[in-house]
Amino acid sequence: MGFNRKDLLGIQDLEVGEIEHILEQARILKEINTRAIKKVPTLRGKTVVHLFYEPSTRTRTSFDIAAKRLSADTYSIAASTSSIVKGETLLDTLKNLEAMHPDIFVVRHSASGAPHMLARRTDASIVNAGDGMHEHPSQALLDMLTILEHKGRLDGLNVLIVGDITHSRVARSNIWGLQKMGSKVTVCGPTTLVPPDIEAMGAKVCYRLEECIPDADVIIVLRLQKERQQQMLLPSLREYSTCYCINRDRLKKAARDVLIMHPGPMNRGVEISSEVADGPYSVILDQVSNGVAVRMAVLYLLAQR
Amino acid sequence: MGFNRKDLLGIQDLEVGEIEHILEQARILKEINTRAIKKVPTLRGKTVVHLFYEPSTRTRTSFDIAAKRLSADTYSIAASTSSIVKGETLLDTLKNLEAMHPDIFVVRHSASGAPHMLARRTDASIVNAGDGMHEHPSQALLDMLTILEHKGRLDGLNVLIVGDITHSRVARSNIWGLQKMGSKVTVCGPTTLVPPDIEAMGAKVCYRLEECIPDADVIIVLRLQKERQQQMLLPSLREYSTCYCINRDRLKKAARDVLIMHPGPMNRGVEISSEVADGPYSVILDQVSNGVAVRMAVLYLLAQR
Amino acid sequence: MGFNRKDLLGIQDLEVGEIEHILEQARILKEINTRAIKKVPTLRGKTVVHLFYEPSTRTRTSFDIAAKRLSADTYSIAASTSSIVKGETLLDTLKNLEAMHPDIFVVRHSASGAPHMLARRTDASIVNAGDGMHEHPSQALLDMLTILEHKGRLDGLNVLIVGDITHSRVARSNIWGLQKMGSKVTVCGPTTLVPPDIEAMGAKVCYRLEECIPDADVIIVLRLQKERQQQMLLPSLREYSTCYCINRDRLKKAARDVLIMHPGPMNRGVEISSEVADGPYSVILDQVSNGVAVRMAVLYLLAQR
Asked: Which one, B6, B136, B294, C174, has least CB within 10 Å?
């Protein structure tokens, strides 16, 4: 089975065969990034527009490197500071840019579903680079690729996701994706940051880290947004850290080959301790490398159709 | 007749043959934008610097796409946020960048005449991408190309420009250009927003939209800058809209093949209604596509000399 | 002797032969910038990341043009406005970007020694584009290249550096570099802006401009940061200008072939008068041109190893 869609909007609506195909493509393209000449002419003459309505250097740079290593031309519209949006609707912005004949839009927006709406209204491809609290499919794909490289499989693994589940599109995309691929997913966080509908998604919920760490093959640590405190969802960073920080002490009860992952950027000392982030179980920088590979695969596959 | 100038500063000083040559070149290059590989090596190794002293995502992106589709390397200096201008004159900034051997500067500046001053002081080509309330030549050229594509001619057409004529470089460049090409131009707007010298430019003035719509082959709707209200030039947006919004009702008396144009970004419901903007007469997105084509032509012709 | 280092961190630790090699390479590559097609494929498929923790359009653009003329792909991370640094250490930012396999980082940081710390922690090359009050090696190299082109030698020349020596990384890199190459360096400025350790670096100190101008073969005028006034290091700009502005009057006692240099951007009328900046002794724009050439040489040599 291939991947013949116009868009990559989320993990929820992908078939297993499609995920496998993207991951396989990423493994093939990944090698380009370690060559002396890190560039292939595959997307020469293709136009990729990064349309970011939320600030992001990390994800945008990863997509940008992916696009340029395939020889695409790229343009960055940072909508927060951009005049393109003054008194203009999201759809007008899209339609205007579309009239300049881009091939692919990479879109980040604070409203869940924004990329889906745009995808219905344009012939260009839309890649969802994060929409509200909904999905961040390329993050889940790079996480799956990283697990696959280290564990050789996704099927039958126990994956634990720790932190602010409610507000995390990374968590949602991973829950959908990992379960499709046969993993069992447990989420763990304070009650105020675990949404009531999470069990309907198929994930197990656990509130005490000590109980779920021993079974985990993989622990995905989420970034804690410090503004959750002002929203009264957290008593204090210190109390969060006391209960949920992934540190060396807590990992004593973990499997000897547990993988520690984090989508970045890390708050060292809050959700993860430095000795764990930089320790032997951490594959956090592999995730970043795989991010470029997965995004190369996504851009490549969308441009082929 | 060709186009052998060093600079494109305005429409006012162009010959008819030069305008025709640019438009013809744009028609030829336009096709590149719909190829699978949207890139030709024409400007390979040329350096284009976008020097923008006013914020602009739309025009800058259009020029940038035009330059890269011709394989030029581009650099963007957003002077509003740039350290390059701290304690430095406009001319020092130009001279410094010039010492790095660019071929073309695309300049936007709030002072009328700024690009002309720069053009006299550099051997590089200057393209005026908008200077104060003076000229925006690439906008007029793309408007003319769009009319030409839809009407087959410019000669003998009645073009109506509606809105804030006083502050509009789009209006000025179009009045000069369209009249050179044989169109008759009428402007319509509130008395506070129509300058007294407009008839000296050759345009007819009309204050009641109902009177001038029936004769129009083309209606160019200008963007209303909302800050005109604070300047006491407008009673209210609502009153403006009541008198000057181009909506379906008003178009009932228009020619059956009238063209509706807008330089963007639109204030839907203020100067143009959504049903008109998205309706069958609207060629607004064609303007955007032609913007890239015209800018490709301009960059190409300037780089040839 | 060649240049086989991983990084260019400063002038202080370079050998004479290494400086000569970079300057020789710059002279060879400089010619590319005046070709019709200003681009060679030397760094095709190489990735250069500009990581700027201080605002800079001028230096960043110079490095960017240098990189693209050699066909590298470039990415700009302006850390002041970037989400990449929110709650993230400098080292985490580096490590994350490193995982995307760049070849060269061009780094500017307000902390002296920051590029050196990064260089020890990455296999990628680090170019110091200015660190605190410490070094700005590419500036000293372009200054040396400019002097060499006009004087035919560095050995035995008297170079006078005027202004705020204390806060100037340009002064420090030049003092180290010029003395290595056989020049004698004198610094001149108000006592509050000349550091006590400057004589330990080998430079002569002079407080009255009139005394040191007659002997100078080259005068490097430093930019005066206006904020020095609020720091109580300067009585007033006017008094500074009265005592230290390089103007036509003062140059009457200078050598007939004196060179006037300035790293830019200039405060005309403060540290340099317009008639001197634009006059026959000024080689200020040659410095800018040589900046691109020197940076091409540095990027080229680092990428070869």
From this structure: B6
